[in-house]
Amino acid sequence: xxxxxxxxxxxxxxVKRALRDRGQLIGGxxxxxxxxxxxxIGLNPYFRGEVYGEVQFVVPYxxxxxxxxxVIVLNIMYxxxxxxxxxxxxxxxxxLREVLxxxxxxxxxxxxxxxxxxxVAMLHGCLVLAxxxxxxxxxxxxxxxxxxxxxxxxxxxxxxxxxxxANRIRTFEGFGVFSNAVILPLYFTSSSVFPLDPALTRAQxxxxxxxxxxxxxxxxxxxxxxxxxxxxxxNFNQFDPxxxxxxxxxxxxxxxxxxxxxxxxx
Amino acid sequence: MQAEExxxxxxxxxxxxxxxxxxxxxxxxxxxxxxxxxQVVALLGPNGAGKTTLLHILCTILQPDNGAAEISxxxxxxxxxxxxxxxxxVFQEPSLDDRLSVYENLDFHGLVYQVPWxxxxxxxxxxLALVELEEWRExxxxxxxxxxxxxxxxxxALIHDSRVILLDEPTVGLDVQSRARIWxxxxxxxxxxxxxxIVTTHYIDExxxxxxxxxxxxxxxxxxxxxxxxxxxxxxQVLRVTPRDQAADAEIVALFPDAIRNKSDQLLLQSANxxxxxxxxxxxxxxxxxxxxxxxxxxxxxxxxxGRELRDKPADAREKTFAFGRRxxxxxx
Lengths: 266, 333
Hints:
heterodimer; A: mainly alpha; two-stranded antiparallel sheet; 2 strands; 74% helix; B: alpha/beta; Rossmann fold; Alpha-Beta Plaits; 2 domains; six-stranded mixed sheet; disordered N terminus
């Protein structure tokens, strides 16, 4: 019971700090608005296009609908990785010591931090989810619950990943550059803004898109997070629907294990 | 000394052969130390003596290369969680979260140390009253002055059932008033709670009121005892003279080969007694610019143990120590 209280304190601190940070909140709101309202609406008419002269619906959804789950993922990515900044902050300003000399085991200290970061990231994902109506995505309560579960797994995995990065980078400035250099490529190669058309065969896909791009998309784990969320929110999957949740669980466990191993050693 | 040890059979802190190296530098050289319970103990030494390293090892954020240590009977290497449970620490650099309020910082600490809700509320009120910060309860920590932050950190270390509290240079960088206040709190604690206070300092005037003083230099403990006892065994009257010219200087040095020259070019003659002072005045009375007689003080204890004055440590070495301490405190180096 006592240890749970400590875990709660560490979690609560992360959440409070994030909610008091105006800049982070503004980013969390403006990013999805930009992507959904401007990118989404702007590109909407071009989405149903021609392939080899023959008109066909690439994806049976509007571009706005298609991009919507990916914007949730994008918002979660930014917030999760940013929340790892708090680890650098704690180290720089000495607060980490306060926790390290306390009777809390290191594993719980890290778990509390990552759960806190995941919670904040999930909240930022929910900010996008609240725009569902504007993107013409209709949701049942069950869909929302499933989506929240997937969003939590993704947040947890990415926050752990952020902590692993934070362990290698000592300055705030370095972290900002690095996180952008990681987030944007991962996002763009995750089949977030363009689909790998399931109607095309693998060979055809490779004719439409260069092979390196297809390979990148296929090895990018974020692809499967996008796919899983699309499956839940739009009933549209480009890959086996069971693959997404499995990839997310494995990512969460592996990244947490690495983060913990490094945190213990430190 | 021996009588005291018999009363407190179980020491609050026990160190055996604790050794720590930073690369080439030997920070702690097989330190053995027993600190009896319910005392205020000062670790006195210049910057770089190894005081901070010793505290970091005790609170388990630094691993010793060799040796063993116990806090209230718990081995710090084998049972670190239990050892830390009854340990309060105030670090040299602030370790508060300045984006949380005063109350939130204290509540966080209470939760992490597993203090039950009711007791937590009560303790928070108590410690805030103790360090006179009640009115700042809901303020963000970043709006506090550095003296108030230090007081808050001391308050925080008292939220849980700490039996041993470690304070690393709690008065450095504070104005005279804040320094006096912090010592007031420590004195109050000793009177009202069963607690062992271990405080490092390089201000010699602060340790007179402590029950016990450990003099530490270059990673070894040179002497341990009550200020009174230390003065009796190691203290001497010191004659502090500034010769008027080179010639007088040379003559004094010739006559007193054990004279020590300090940084402000004064000569310190250690074996001062009334007879010797009279002789000295007769011989050199007209040829010195300034002359002080220091009574047997802790300063002279340090001088006779190390051959240096405590306050003489040059500034550049001091800065090196700070860098060194930071490296030592950095968990990943």
